[in-house]
Amino acid sequence: MPKAFPKEFRRDVVAVARRGNAPISRIAKDFGISEFCLQRWLKLADI
User: Fold this and answer.
1) CA pair distance 13, 25, nearest whole angstrom
2) Is 23 helix (H, G, I), strand (E, B) or coil?
3) Which of 2, 8, 11, 40 is 20 to 30 Å from 18 at the Cα level?
């Protein structure tokens, strides 16, 4: 099982995604995560 990303990293990626300056797919690729992973983080951040 892959190692979990630190909370700070997840928080920063979600913040970048919320700015809406780029598509989710591009942001995920730039940070080296899957698009599905980023979408999940965004949903979890809304809770």
Assistant:
1) 12
2) coil
3) 2
φ/ψ of 22, rounded to 5, equals: -150, 160
CB 30 within 8 A of CB 19: no
In this structure, the number of other CB atoms found within 10 A of the CB of residue 4 comes to 8
Tens-digit pLDDT profile for residues 25-38: 999 999 999 999 99
pLDDT at position 4 is 86
Of the candidates 29, 5, 4, the residue with the CA atom closest to the CA atom of residue 16: 29
Q: Where are the domains of the chain?
A: 7-46
Handedness of CA 31, 33, 36, 41 (dihedral sign): negative
- What's the pTM value of the predicted model, to 2 decimals? 0.85
